[in-house]
Design brief:
The chain contains one helix and ten strands; from the N terminus they run αββββββββββ. With 137 residues, it is mainly β. It has one domain. The strands form two sheets. Strands 1-2-3-4-5-6-7-10 form an eight-stranded antiparallel β-barrel. Strands 8-9 form a two-stranded antiparallel ribbon. A hairpin with a 5-residue loop joins strand 6 and strand 7. The longest helix has 18 residues. The chain is globular, with a radius of gyration of 17 Å. The relative contact order is 0.17.
Length: 137
């Protein structure tokens, strides 16, 4: 019986700790088919194909042109963070405001810099400036 109580207490404590780290998530925008992998608390995420740079704070991939890596971040408060993304060539950057909404979705708002694009046919097309991400379980 004590084993079960310990296990339940451990699971509750673990879920409480995870809930306190809202900027460590794997997020997905199903409408635009874009992934956002973030850990804004520490550099712990290896970017596929960019392992030689070591762990970073995250990256964005999916239906975007290339991979966009998080080069810097600042957590403003418990619901807002500012992140700086750079494309895989390092030639373009974008500042983004990431806001957690009351329904547990994440609003991704491009603020300045190069517009992130995707390939449609044989052309590069801008993705929407505002994206809505949901946590992946």
């Amino acid at each position: 019986m004590k084993k079960y109580l310990f296990l339940i207490a451990f699971c509750l404590q673990t879920s409480f700790i995870i809930a306190q780290r809202p900027f460590k998530q794997n997020l997905y925008d199903p409408k635009n088919k874009i992934n956002l992998h973030i850990d804004l608390y520490e550099e712990s995420i290896n970017v596929p194909g960019m392992e030689m740079f070591g762990p970073m704070k995250g990256y964005m991939n999916g239906n975007v042109y290339g991979i966009w890596m998080i080069t810097s971040s600042e957590i403003k408060d418990e619901k807002t963070a500012i992140i700086r993304l750079s494309n895989d060539f390092g030639s373009e950057t974008q500042q983004v405001r990431l806001t957690i909404k009351d329904d547990s979705t994440y609003l991704f708002e491009q603020e300045d810099g190069a517009v992130i694009k995707k390939v449609v046919g044989k052309k590069l097309v801008k993705i929407p400036r505002d994206l809505t991400f949901t946590p992946r379980r």
